[in-house]
Amino acid sequence: MNRKHLLLDCCKAIFIGLVLLFLYAPILLLAVYSFIGTDIIGTSGEFSLVHYVSLFTDPKVLTMIGNTIFLALASAALSTILGTLGAIGMYYSKRRTKTMLGAVSRIPIINAEIVTALALAIAFVVCAIPKSYFTLLVGHMVISTPFVVLSVMPKLKQMDNSLYEAALDLGASPAKALFRVVLPQIIPGVISGFMLAVTLSLDDYIVTFYTRPNGFETISTYVFNATTRGNAQTAETLSSFWALTTIIFILILLIVLISNLVGKKKEADR
Amino acid sequence: MRLQFSRKMLGIPYAVFLLFFVIVPMLVILFYAFTDKELHFTFGNFIRFFSDPSKLSTIAYSLVIALITTVICLAIAYPVAYILARSNMKRKFVLLLLFVTPMWINFVLRVNAIRELLSWTGLLGEANYFNTIFGMVYDFLPFMILPIYTTLLKIDHSLYEASADLGAGWSKTFTRITLPLSLPGIMSGITMVFLPSMTNYVVSDMLGNSKVTIIGKFIYEYFGSNWHMGSMVALILLIVVFLTTWLTGGFREDETVRGANI
User: Fold this and answer.
1) CA torsion sign, B29 to B34 to B38 to B44?
2) Contact with chain B for residue A168, Cβ under 8 A
3) What is the ipTM score, two decimals?
4) Which superfamily is assigned to B54-247 in CATH?
């Protein structure tokens, strides 16, 4: 009996291990080769930081990294403000308004990204709005704001409603009551909404492609073009992406690790 | 008259935003889908799309690719979610986190990593359909694991105990309790894998050597040439999306948020 159990546990561990291997193999392969001075994976070479050097010395690459980060932060900040206010407004609206707004707000979430992107792109042309940073920003806000609403809503439902009334009774202005009483209670939802908006924007290719101004590149569009079009792209550019992937992977690991440790500490403090 | 402040009003900017950037674009698509170049009403786009044999075979291919991807994802994800959810490990969500972490690397960079792996093994450019499905399974697998894991975790443990007390073996408990109760998770997982594998052409373009066309790619092609046809395809996809969501019981807010709620 015990033996059978052990065997089963072993099988489970092996299965989990294999799936994890599948998920991490491509990334680890790039991580290893990002430190080897060759442009073709599988060929041998010596330890070298040449890919990192070419990543950080290519002005085009640096621009697109900067673009990606700035766009993610800007669109996430705007989405968070719009979405948080929207969630509060929806929460206190009449049932019918609430249901209707909720339904429309879900459209970009369940819709295929390509449909959202095409609809926006054509609508901009029909309304004679030329593609610009504004249209790009709107595109990213359309995909991320509904997620902010989704992550703020549950916190509003958990909130003690009488506190806002109490603040008003004690002479606070509505703005002050919102900032000092409501916001602190929903802030975890606001923060996770912001983080979600950042990751959605960082990850996006399709909406960016259809709403961006000419010549504007993010990591997604740049890497996609470099690998599929193949025109005038040197092997050097392609292998500098190995370094980029490795850096991002390490950053994510650090964030996960730190937030885990912080979470553990919070748990221990309780 | 001075306007009295009420908290409802805070929702106005978002309502206006939704009106202009969600509803209006959908109406524009609807209008374009049912008009011709002179903007006269027509069903022609619809008929033209469905009477083109090459289009129909691409649709069939695309559906088969999406179906295979979904089945493979389910076959891998269910056991993973089951093992994780039922394990006695203290901090099992750390293990779950390991499955989600790769998802936070930029999507295109992730596909590029698969591309390099495939080119290393010599498959790139050789097995286009296999590569596309391989890449899609890789990219969408976490979307299947998360919702199933969440629903499995919610199942009351006393149900398992009751089932065992009443003499049911593992397989009976699984088919009569675990599987039916995790069905909502399976459904939202299927929706979240099937739809992108039909529409997200980044994977098929980067891994399929530009030989694999999926439905979403039509929109890209029409965007450069014919907006009326493009809008028609978008409208059809929109209907498919809503039908799928409706048939699979709608989407559950707590399970869709890409692991941000862990």
Assistant:
1) positive
2) no
3) 0.89
4) MetI-like (1.10.3720.10)
